[in-house]
Amino acid sequence: MRKQYHFRPSENGFYAWDVDKLIAASRKFPVVHVNLDDIKELDENFWYNGEEDVPTCRSIGEHLQLANEADLNYPVILSEEKRVMDGMHRILKALVTGHKTVKAVIFENTPPPDFKDVSPEDLAY
């Protein structure tokens, strides 16, 4: 699997969590089913590559390819606020294939970020 990070805006860039560490930290959490209608990110703009981006057919196609390859057997990871930290392509796959829910694990306490005030292009991939 390619190296991934979860990003949230910070005062001077982004907070970033190493997804491998999130997976390891949440491995023993109970798996629950979350309604797709409760996933806020499905209705928010997620197109960010360091600048204001406008989706193109190519970029949408690339995301659909990643969603198509996603494995719904693995739960998505949600923060304590139930925000997606890992698994958006699995959520997209569940949506386009007609599922009403997706498997998830939820942090009781969101871990601190691995990086603070970084730019996505500053991290190792």
Task: Note down, in words, how this protein is organized.
The structure is a single chain. By secondary structure, this protein is of the alpha+beta class. It has one domain (5-122): Conserved hypothetical protein from pyrococcus furiosus pfu- 392566-001, ParB domain (Alpha-Beta Complex). It is built from three helices and seven strands; from the N terminus they run E-E-H-E-H-E-E-H-E-E. It has helices spanning 19-26, 57-69, 88-96; strands at residues 5-10, 13-18, 32-35, 76-78, 84-86, 101-106, 115-118. The strands form two sheets. It has a four-stranded mixed beta sheet. The longest helix has 13 residues, at 57-69. The N and C termini lie close together (11 Å). The model has no long low-confidence stretch (mean pLDDT 91).
> What sequence of helices (H) and strands (E) makes up the elements?
EEHEHEEHEE
Order of the strands making up the biggest sheet: 3-6-4-5
The whole-number mean of residue pLDDT values reads 91
Main CATH class: Alpha Beta
Helix content: 10-25%
How many structural domains does the protein architecture include? 1
Number of helices: 3
Low-pLDDT parts are none
Straight-line N-to-C gap: 11 Å
Largest sheet: 4 strands, mixed
Radius of gyration: 14 Å
In terms of DSSP E residues, the strand content is: 25-35%
Shape: globular
What would the CATH topology be? Answer: Conserved hypothetical protein from pyrococcus furiosus pfu- 392566-001, ParB domain
Number of strands: 7
What class, by secondary structure content?
alpha+beta
